[in-house]
Amino acid sequence: MTRLLIQDPPAKSTEPAKADTILPVVSHPERLRSLDRKAAGTLVIHEIYRSLQGESTFAGLPCIFVRLTACHLRCVYCDTPHAFNQGKPLGIDEIVAQVHALGDQLVEITGGEPLLQPEVFPLMTRLADEGKTVLLETSGALDIGPVDPRVHIILDLKTPGSGEVDANLWSNLALLKPIDELKFVICDREDFDWSISQVRAHSLIGRCPILFGACFGRVSSTELAAWILETRLPIRLQLQQHKILWDPQARGV
Ligand code: SF4
Q1: pLDDT at res. 241
Q2: Which residue numbers in the chain have pLDDT < 70?
Q3: Is residue 21 part of a domain?
Q4: Most CB contacts within 10 A, which of 41, 53, 74, 136?
Q5: CATH of the domain at 192
Q6: Would you give the distance in Å from CA 42 to the centre of its chain?
Q7: Domain count for the chain
């Protein structure tokens, strides 16, 4: 794994002046405090590093991860709470330069919740313009409508077991494209049955790949595999490959 340290932003930005950042209105606005002093045109970045993609249909490929700071949700299984607060503001030029320095084709924008920072939209467009394959990992709680259509959106649908089922923005389901992916993290059998009922109720089969992953430490992937087979639905079992390859608590992998 190669990691670039996040550096202080350049003393003088070469980017054009932009309007003030307007953060989305969310429940628990106090969870966005780390974005309070963010200058317009910058993003608060927790870390930028390269590793193997651990999830989605891109699992196993070398990938550059751009992790944005802050999340307004608190899923019970969250494995990136360190990204809730820590980070430094960087301009889009600096982020793109760090991505190019790491060199891989595949780039994932993740968090935290990356869609909390409006500058993420021009960042994704810029990366796509420069020929990168861009993935966006998002909680499903914020509008994906403004996302560049070239971006592969990996959208969570929060299950009851996550503790954040009420945060789901259901209108996002109608916006999914064939290149997007819909992810469910299954905490127990009740979560599984709830997820299957959503797949059926919203006619999601055939819209885009559907991924079911076992909540680490709560359900075994073997058990989840058996449940998926019972349904005879084309649902893909997702293994958290990075937690198999490396210490499950490790950061930056
Ligand atoms: S949405 Fe993601 S980053 Fe936010 S609390 Fe849930 S798992 Fe953690």
Answers
A1: 77
A2: 1-21, 252-253
A3: no
A4: 136
A5: 3.20.20.70
A6: 19
A7: 1
